[in-house]
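ADP-ribose pyrophosphatase, Alteribacillus persepolensis. Tokens?
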Amino acid sequence: MDFTEKTINKQSLYQGKIIDVNLHDVTLPNGKTSKREIVNHPGAVALICVTEEKKLVMVRQYRKALEKEIVEIPAGKLEKGEDPEDTAKRELEEETGYQTDYLKKVASFYTSPGFADELVHLFETGTLTEGKAATDEDEFVEVIEATIEEAEKMIETEEIHDAKTMFAVQYIKQKLSSTR
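Tokens:
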């Protein structure tokens, strides 16, 4: 069976600085019609960074959509036409002050495929060198370095409360346990 939903009409509901929202009228596989609210996002990168002391580098920041602070791995939005690796290096330095000369792509994943097209490119860094953070003027973050055990506790207490960071913790835990 073909599950494709064909768009028969599209209406722009909102065009913003980061996202656009469109309403699609679609024909369903059974021939009936329905509506889909779609959030279009330019995509993002996220970074799994581990220090020489085997600590995961993260940032604490306030997330207005959640009305709370959470701890996350460094991440940021792709600029139009920007290569994800370039975005990753820029975001790493802007948010944490760290630089790296090596990036390995771990995975790409959709954050909320039921209503959004945001694709996150996840990278693992190589050796980190310290620099100076240069966050955007509307961005306030605190750099945190945590052991895997500390990060797992943050997941339990919901200080870490997003999928990309939970994935990063599990990825590094598995990687470190396989190198012992």
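The mean pLDDT is 94.
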